[in-house]
Each structure stands twice: as C-alpha cells, then as structure tokens.
C-alpha cells in the first residue's frame, strides 16, 4: 500500500521528462543518471549532450521494459544474480563511516614508519572458553615478568612461543609496516617504545608479547622501467634456457648504452609497457613480486640498471627512474579504505556499526526472557546434538524487538540448532552466549539490509541500475550479440549488401628480414629460398631397439606418441627417419636399419601422422669401435634417429639466432601502408631492397604489389560481425519504438539545460 501511495504521489507531483508507451520517466530519475555519468564534462549541459543522452536512455529503457514484459526479471537465475550484486552494493551502507575515516588516517600515518619487532605467541583455539583465555593471559603475564627481569627474549620465544618460526628466528619478525599484521598486533607494536615490551596483546591467534627493537622511516615509493622476457615456472627446459639467453643478450646491449626505449619497444614482452619504454607506475613496499621489489629498491641512482632478475612472470631488466616519499593521503585514501574493509581492524568498525543500528532501529531486549532462554544450554550443545522441546510454552516469548518486529525464543533456538557444532573445549553456557550474540548481530544486519532501499535513495537507484543492466545484458545477447555470431546467413547477406565498406587499400606482399648486422642479413637471404629448415629446438630423441628386433622398446612408446602429436598438430612439419643397425647383429639379407625406419614410420602414420610428412632412410650397419665395446654402446647403434624440417620462417630465424637471440627477425605477409616502417621505406615495386633503420639492417623482398580490392568475409569477419550487431540493434529498437512510442517533454529538457 505504501508503494502504491508513493507511485500515485509521483504521478501527481513528479515532473516527467519522457514517456515510453504509458510508462513515465521522471526528471529526477533521468537527472540522477545523467549527472552521475556526465556531470564532470565541460559540455555536460549543452542541448546536444542532454538530448543525445536522453535518446540513449530512452532506448535503454525500451529494452528494459521489453525484458520486464517477458518476465525475465522473475526467473530464479535473474533473482540470484541480482541478489549477488545487491550484496556487494550494500557493503558501503553496512559500515560506520566515521570509524573508517579514523582508521584510514591512522593507517596512513603508520605507513610512514616501519617497525622491527619480535614476539612470543601463546595460542588459543577457535572460540576459546573463558578458562582457556584466562590461563593463556596469566602465562603471558608471568613470561613478561621474566623478560622484564632480564631473561633473553629469543630464549623464551624458542621455549614457549606457539609461532612455528620462533624455533629458528627466536620470534624476530624483521621490519613491517601498517596493514601487514593483524590490527591489534600492529596497534601494540606502533604504540610500544623502542626497547620495551608490550603488555599481553589479544588477537584471533592468542596472546602476544611484543618487543620493539627499532623504528625507521618507510622506504617510500619508486618508479622503474623494465624489459621483460617471458619465462614461466614449469616451461620446457629448452624454452627456459632460450629465455635466459635472450635476456642476457638484451642486458649486454643495455650495458653498451644502447637506447633503452628502443630496446624496450623492440624486445620487451610486457605489452602494456613496451611501447612506453617499459615504464611502470609508482609503487611501494608490498606492491610488487618480492624478488622484483627487492632488486628495484636496491637501485640507488636514477638511470642505474640491475642485472636480470627472475620472477614467476619471467626475466626482468630493471632501470631506476625515480624515488619519492610516501604518496599523499588523497592519493592513497581509496586504496586504504579497500584494504581496511578486509583487514582485522574492520572488527572495530563492525562493533560501532552494530551499536548505531541498534539505536536507529530501536533494538529492545527482555533480560528476563534472555536469561531463561540461555539457561537451557546442556552438554549436548558441546556434542552438536542440542534440541529444544517444541511444547515449551516459553518459546513464543519475545527475546528482543527491532523496530517493533519481535524475535522469539523459537527463532533463537532454531538458529542454535542450525549453527551448533561439536566443540572440544568450553562450557555449554559459554557457547550458548556466543550463539545468542551472533543471532542478535545476524538479525540486526538482516533487518538493516532489507530496509536499505527505503533508507538510502542512492542505494535504491544503484539497485535499479543493476536490475536494468542484467535485463539488458540478457536481451542484447539474445537479440544482438549471439544472434550476429550464429546467424551466418544474415551475416553473409549483410556483408554482400555493404561490400563497399570493406575494401583493402594498396598492399605489398613482402618478406622482411631485420638483422643485427650485414653478415647475418646475408646468411638469412642465402637460406631464405630453401623453405626447408631444420628444427633444432626440441629435436626428437633417438629410439633404441633390442638385438635383431625392429620393434621399439615399450619404454620409448610414450616418446613416439608425443612425436606423433607434434606432427599431427602441425602438418607443415616434415620428419626424416634414419634407421641404424649394429654390426654384431645377425648377418644376411635382412636390413634391420631399413626395417626399423619403416616400423617407426608405420607407427606414426597409424597414430594420425600424414604419410607425406615422413621420409625414411636406411643407414645400414655401424661397426662397433673398441673404445665403445659395451652393451650401452651397441644399443646406441641399434636405433632410429630423427631430423625435423619446417618451411616456417620463424624456424629459420631461430637457427640464425643460435649465437645471438636478437640477431634476426623475419616476417612475410601482405602489408598496408603504415604497418611496417621498413616496407614503407622502399619502393612498392617487385624487387629486393636494402635499408637501415634504428641501427639494424633490413632486407625487403617485394613479391607483388596488390591493387585496392574488396575484402573477403573471412578476412574481416570480426569487423563485419560488430557492424551486423549494430544493424540488428537498430532494427530491434525501431520495433520497440513502434510497440511503445517515445514522447519527450521538451520543457523539462530545457530546464536541465538552463541549470
């Protein structure tokens, strides 16, 4: 009824900026969304800006209305997704802002300092009983007396601390700063003077005694650039070695004072920074991979470069660009807020928030009913088997109310039954009290969350935005995105009707070789025409045989299967199989070397390799030499060996780069103007051209110059699909506008523009 009344009031009083069918769009709704997305723009309130955005907004609302008319917002999947977003959106409203503000400022001030400290931990179980807690506290007090009397801290830490690392480090934690320890520990460490020992400090781990050894100014932030060569854990050994050789070669060029920006642009595999000289944003302690950070902070002078360092992402050559003190509070504030929301200090915020909403929601508790309800705890609660008597007349009694809504003993006992679990320590009374406190907190939070939309207009608008956004995504996927991908007939028809939009400009079909020097360039040019290059990286291992056998050992089958997969997955690869035999094997007409080569070829073709990928050669018998008169030596003669060949230019480049990972780069494709500087620098006529750019030698072979021509659908499918999606969207919107005509109230538009 309240909702209906509010709607009626809006219809009578709220100005309407547009009407879609019979549904109004109120000026306040549009203005809220418009200012949120455009308020900071200089031209935000021009007639063109407001009108264009209103057009976009009405198109958006048309689609949302269509989704609602089809009941898409009533499905279980939709409700589940919206609830997930509401949970996230609610978080800023379920906190105590004033407490958060204090914690953010405190954290920032502490970040200016690093503390070096040791500790002794006296651990406590989860949810300890009062007796356990008191025993740990008393032990902490006694240990502190012994420390104050002069006993060595590290000795007592090794003897009594429950921190496993204490056995090795005597409790020493080294230097740390704010946000790196649980809050109560951090708070005590920062408040304890250097050389002194804190009082016992309670955290979720237990009680701590903290001795502060030193305090120093924080390191601040640094700015570096890097050149990265990818090398990930678990990659093949050959690839890992190649990455190391490559980064070492780059580092040598850095040491020769070659242009850093040019090296980063050409060789760094960090796509986000390579074009910008490898430059990274400012960062402080804890913001980077530790191995990267340690080397970076170790650099002292601007321009200093460290030798390559390995991280989980690969090899990095790091150059120091600058150092600065801790960023301003304004720059760090939001990041600190995000961290505090997940930090243990958020417990302070939660306590203050619960206190406030208790007051705002008129929380009222009946102490007599509470005491009677808690008294029903029995030992079965410790076993996780507690239950209550459904016939108990006190179950209907009200324990507490929230804004007048009663929460009964039944509600509480039902919660206890669901949440109880076996416990090894504590008393039934202690655990029943804990469950009651949790029930009160849960009830308060649930009530507050359920009423956020009534309490906070901003939250209500955000929820509506997400509601509409989920609907829009579902409809756009159905009507536009997936349809454009799946409707191949429609896509082809659209392409045929719009061929003029998809044209190639003049292109040069060319091969481009970039080399570090003229000698390497000449070698590349000499071998280029072969188009049959030996694959040296990952050369297949030999397969051995028993005496007088042409069947490979079972131990080699796995390697043959890997080779078969490699060949079948790359039809361009060609394999030569060489059969070998031992001179001591049975004499006669039987050619075991040929049999072995053919047996391997047959195995590979049976496992998916094309027959034309394999060539076999019989190398005959190998005479046993005196120095190799062993079974191992004879087995090396009873084998097949392999050579892989590929027509791919990348293989030629790899072979030429054996001594210098950066020696040669080769590419062959159809280039448009602006795609390759070397191609742009030569005549666009058939022929071979030499040029020099940025200290490297280039050979450009122009095979053909292609006149402007229409593109094939296969060449521009991605672009055509995107255009077809826009076309489908326009058609759909026209249909929706016919179904629900849009009417604009220009008077209200003019008011926004004047404002």
TrEMBL record:
The OmpA-like domain, residue ranges: 532-648
Molecular function terms from GO: peptidyl-prolyl cis-trans isomerase activity
Q: Which residues form the PpiC domain?
A: 112-214, 219-322
> Which Pfam families does the entry link to?
OmpA, Rotamase, Rotamase_3
Upper lineage ranks? Bacteria, Pseudomonadati, Bacteroidota, Cytophagia, Cytophagales
Matches recorded under SUPFAM superfamilies = FKBP-like, OmpA-like
Protein keywords = Isomerase, Membrane, Rotamase
Name this polypeptide is given = Peptidyl-prolyl cis-trans isomerase SurA
Q: Does the keyword Ribonucleoprotein apply?
A: no
Record-linked Gene3D superfamilies: 3.10.50.40, OmpA-like domain (3.30.1330.60)
Per the UniProt entry, what species is this protein from, by scientific name? Answer: Pontibacter indicus
Q: Name one GO cellular component term.
A: membrane
